Amino acid sequence: INRIAIITSGGDAPGMNAALRAVVLAAENYGIEVMGFRHGYEGLLTNDFVKLDREDVEHILQYSGTIIKSARSERFKSEEGGREAATNLDAHQIDAFIVIGGDGSFRGAEHLANFWKGPIIGIPGTIDNDLFGTDNTIGYDTAVETAMDALDKIRDTAEAMDRVFIVEVMGRNAGYIGISSAMACGAERMILPELQKDKPLTVDALVKHIESVQRVRGDSSYVMVLCENQWPGGAVRLAEQLEDRLNLPCRPCLLGHVQRGGRPTAMDRILGTRLGVHAVELVRQGKTAVMAGVTANELSETPLIDTWTKRKKLSEELINIQQSLFNPIKKDRNKS
Ligand code: ATP
After folding, report:
1. Nearest of 7, 59, 2, 77 to residue 38 by alpha carbon
2. Which of 155, 250, 289, 300 is at a distance of 20 to 30 A from 111, taking alpha carbons?
3. 72 C-beta closer than 6 A to ligand 1
4. In this structure, are residues 265 and 279 in contact, taking their beta carbons and an 8 Å threshold?
5. Residue 90 has pLDDT above 70, yes or no
């Protein structure tokens, strides 16, 4: 192996730079050259690349985003796009390909494998933490910290003003950011995809819960964490629906893309570094179509296809603990 190509693809995640840095430094130790193609798969089609040396990456691990940019590329998804990307990789004499991204990016890697025969390794980089085969994905921990910080601040004003807040967090179709931030901040309620799937909440049920929490507590602050895509019209609509029914101001707060930025936490920098080095080792071992991961704190590898076909399960223990702490309806009933 003389030359590796690398991209960052899909939604950016804090810690992608740390992984990129680790790949470059580890590769350099083996005399392997690294070429970063910019803007994800799009860069493979436009031949937009930079050669990455130690000096380019040495001091980037404390920054979010990605120095080689990320993007989504529709063109790459076609047969023609896959073929073109493969031709370009061959033209640059690339021996192995590493992609840092989420499940979409890994599907892209499978697509590329139909046209290009070199080894392909995935590094899980997404704030959603929704990939099977790794305990955490790079960026998830920082996103939870950011959501937690925002929720703490919202609690201050909710308490002072006796308000109900609905805070919408990211996570695509997974409730990892939702449950972790709700638990870390003592949110009274969370609306998670994993719960909505079986038993979707109704406005009636939420009103009942808010009223009984307030009765038991004797104050009116109430913070709800809503995962994106889990309520028609999102937090804005839900706040309107609740305000219509409650005699209280209800405010929506959409955390949005702030969850993708900020200084990567130590956990994400360390995870990015471990996985970057691990990916280079996997390349050297001749592995292909696998994702580098960390499972039970040990380095692991998982077939790329499993990372999205198998579903990582959100811990029921966590869900139960968090829900059990705010079950005042039961308590109310016992009292009367
Ligand atoms: P995140 O979930 O954090 O946003 P992601 O990697 O899942 O990250 P996507 O936008 O789903 O982000 O995918 C990134 C890119 O991967 C797409 O723009 C496309 O170029 C490629 N890709 C996704 N799905 C496929 C597919 N089925 N076939 C080929 N390429 C794909």
Report:
1. 7
2. 300
3. yes
4. no
5. yes
Residue whose CA is at the smallest distance from ligand 1 atom 4: 11
* Minimum CA distance residue for ligand 1 atom 27: 107
Residue 203: pLDDT band (50, 70, 90) is very high
Question: pTM for the full model?
Answer: 0.95
User: pLDDT: is 248 or 105 the higher one?
Assistant: 105
Whole-number Å distance between alpha carbons of 174 and 254: 17
Read off the pLDDT of residues 64-85 as tens digits, 9 standing for 90 and up.
999 999 999 999 999 999 999 9
Catalytic residue among 12, 103, 128, 268: 128
Atom of ligand 1 minimally distant from the CA of 42: 20
**Is 156 tagged catalytic?**
no
Ligand 1 mean position, distance from CA 184 (Å): 30
3-class DSSP assignment, residue 152: helix
Task: Please answer whether residues 125 and 137 qualify as being in contact, where contact means their C-beta atoms are separated by less than 8 angstroms.
Answer: yes
220 CB within 6 A, ligand 1 = no
What radius of gyration do the chain's Cα atoms show?
Answer: 22
Phi then psi dihedrals of residue 213, to 5 deg: -60, -45
